[in-house]
Amino acid sequence: MHQPAPSADLRHRTIEAPAGRLHLVEQGTGPLVLLVHGFPESWYSWRRQLPALATAGYRAVALDVRGYGRSSKPAATDAYRMLDLVEDNVALVRALGEEKAVIVGHDWGSGIAAASALLHPEVFRAVGLLSVPYAPPGGPRPTDVFAQMGGDQEFYVSYFQEPGRAEAEMEPDVRGWLAGFYAAMSADTMPTPGEPDPHFVARTGGRLRDRFPGGSLPAWLTEDDLDVYAGEFERTGMTGALNRYRNMDRDWEDLAPYGGAPIEQPSLFVGGALDASTTWMADAIDAYPATLPGLTSSHILDGCGHWIQQERPEEVNRLLTSWLDSLQG
User: Fold this and answer.
1) What is the mean pLDDT of the segment spanning 242-271?
2) Does the structure show a pLDDT above 70 at 9?
């Protein structure tokens, strides 16, 4: 079995893009694979994939999405709409001197990857989706859907959508908040059935962290890893990351011309059996024969939570490299 190349081989660089500046981390040579993180993460969430993909013969590139890390953080809330994030990805591929790339995303990155493949099939020749299934654009207005969830409780997406509200909870103790959020959705530390669901808050004066598990960090997250994530968000603040949630109705309007559209390119899906994204969106997974007709590899990992490529790096690396190798034939 290949041994991953040492982290010293990582190359940091910035490129000019519609966001202003995008920071990326690169390892390896070969066909380009663009890795897009989710919330609340950074390029660092792909730290276990970069060396594995490089060893397997790929040019692996993980970026900080606009608003995160060392990438630019535009002030306007509507600068974080999906169309703009897609154009960042196209610009990144061009800036790297490439015409085409495989794009792989986790969490919000999965949605960004899917939209990139849908809008620019001439650039993104295949798409890998981790944790969050593909659901074609369309349906009811997102904020209307979220407002109806939870009954006397408020869904976390609605909570995140109000400017400043979630920041007031997170920013006084970024490290502690991140530790709790990561633990709440990790297989080995998530609340047990019957305990309060950390995806919801009390409608009056509620905080997400009131429902986070206490105690130890999840097994995949070291104190040093947590320091990396906390250091980035302590420096940037949380608004750039949260603005993704504040554009969901804009995205719904912007992508209306693509209502119901399938992604035709070869695709991969990997979800965690214990991840709410997998269970809540089971119908989207069932619809894959129509919505992802190019799906060639689909897996649900037993006993795995939401942070899939960090919780189960060796298994995800094996699935990713096997799928990528199949595209080369």
Assistant:
1) 98
2) yes
Two tokens at 200?
A: 């919801």
Q: Do the Cβ atoms of 163 and 140 come closer than 8 Å?
A: no
Does residue 1 carry a pLDDT above 60? no
- List all residues 6 or more positions away from 264 whose beta carbon is below 8 Å from its beta carbon: 121, 293, 294
- Catalytic positions, written as ranges: 107, 306
C-beta separation of 45 from 309 below 8 A: yes
DSSP bridge pairs for 271: 300
What single DSSP character describes residue 8?
G
Lowest-pLDDT range of 79-83, 210-214, 314-318: 210-214
Residue 139: both structure tokens together: 């349906």
Give the 3-state secondary structure percentages of the chain, helix then strand then coil, rounded to 5.
45, 15, 40
Token pair for 20: 């202003």
Helices 82-95 and 108-119, packing angle to 10 deg: 70
pLDDT of 5: 44
> Which range (4-8, 95-99, 169-173, 296-300) has the least confidence?
4-8
Query: How many other CB atoms are there within 10 angstroms of residue 77's CB atom?
Result: 15
Report how far residue 323's alpha carbon sits from residue 194's, in angstroms, rounded to the nearest whole number: 38
Q: How many CA atoms lie within 13 A of 96 on its CB side?
A: 31
